[in-house]
Write a structure and sequence with these properties.
Keywords: Methyltransferase, Transferase. InterPro entries: Erg6_SMT_methyltransf, Methyltransf_25, SAM-dependent_MTases_sf. One of its GO terms (biological process) is methylation. The protein has a single domain, classed as Vaccinia Virus protein VP39 (Rossmann fold, 3-Layer(aba) Sandwich), CATH 3.40.50. 50% of the residues lie in helices and 19% in strands. The chain has a seven-stranded mixed sheet with strand order 3-2-1-4-5-7-6, with helices on both faces. Helix 5 links the parallel strand 1 and strand 2. Helix 3 packs antiparallel against helix 11, helix 7 crosses helix 9 and helix 11 packs antiparallel against helix 12.
Length: 291
């Protein structure tokens, strides 16, 4: 991604996700809990087959995306760390925000820089009977200010790669209570080519776990938990590519432009899977505590 002014970067990313709304709903919907992140596949679970229907594959993807959040909840101790006031930073269409509110009773502020996503998140919250439990906030995570803090925790599910990490942690230091947590599920850099594959498709800037730890430490946070789930998430890319191929093979209503975009997506999914298997990217869960 070409170097841009920081505010231009925020705007470009917001526009990118605004433009993807309908595509996200089609692939990961219908909702209300729509997730835009990888899935978690324990050794005992088999992903959908490449020759399954698009609907069967989509159902499996959604199941394993929810599985990733349940795994995150287990390793982060969600019953006592993510059951109070929670910031869901980079909330997408709000699937995680609804998850923390429904499953753990959290009061969630869902932070997004994609203006079109905010009413979608709040609409899904109303659909789930979560008025007052989930509210959307449109802002730049690097300039985060909230009036109803302090918060018990902040969660970022495959969103922190878009942030200026030192600036983000510095802002969090003002809104997270002492002893509170910053919980991050992210794709981390292990070699330059892996970073290129991830960044060029998703418009983000991956970093190493050490980069995160240094930025957090400078803002008064300590890395207390780190879990590697690269192997357990790799099948997501096989399923994602299989869904795209199934749609290309069977949906005759696609326009030429849509077909071209889906072919690009297919190639990107295959490249991500190759980097996962080769060790070029690491999927990890980090938890930081405010001192």
């Amino acid at each position: 991604m070409a170097e841009l002014d920081p505010q231009d970067e925020v705007r470009v990313v917001g526009q990118y996700y605004d433009a993807k709304t309908a595509k996200l709903v089609r692939k990961y919907g219908p909702g209300p809990r729509i997730h835009y992140h990888v899935g978690y596949y324990p050794n005992s679970e088999t992903p959908a087959r490449a020759d399954d229907t698009a609907e069967t594959i989509r159902h499996s993807i959604r199941l394993h995306q929810e599985g990733l959040l349940r795994y995150a909840a287990k390793i982060w101790g969600a019953e006592h760390r993510l059951s109070g006031k929670v910031l869901d930073v980079g909330c997408g269409l709000g699937g995680g925000s609804l998850f923390w509110a429904q499953e753990y009773g959290a009061d969630v502020t869902a932070v997004t820089n994609a203006p079109e996503h905010a009413p979608v998140v709040e609409g899904f919250a109303r659909e789930c009977g979560l008025d007052g439990k989930v509210k959307a906030l449109v802002c730049d995570a690097n300039r985060l200010t909230v009036d109803d803090g302090p918060y018990d925790a902040a969660v970022a599910i495959e969103s922190s790669g878009y942030f200026n990490r030192p600036q983000w942690f510095e802002r969090l230091s003002h809104v997270i209570r002492p002893g509170g947590s910053v919980c991050i599920e992210e794709v981390f850099l292990t070699r330059p080519h892996g970073a290129d594959v991830w960044a060029e498709y998703f418009y983000c800037k991956p970093a190493t776990v050490q980069d995160y730890a240094a930025a957090a430490r400078a803002a008064g946070f300590e890395l207390v938990d780190e879990v590697d789930a690269t192997a357990e998430t790799q099948p997501f890319w096989d399923e994602s590519a299989a869904w795209t191929q199934a749609v290309l093979d069977n949906d005759t209503s696609l326009s030429a432009v849509e077909r071209r975009q889906m072919r690009i997506s297919l190639l990107a999914n295959q490249a991500q899977g190759a980097e996962w298997r080769a060790g070029g990217l690491q999927l990890g869960f980090l938890r930081f505590e405010k001192k």
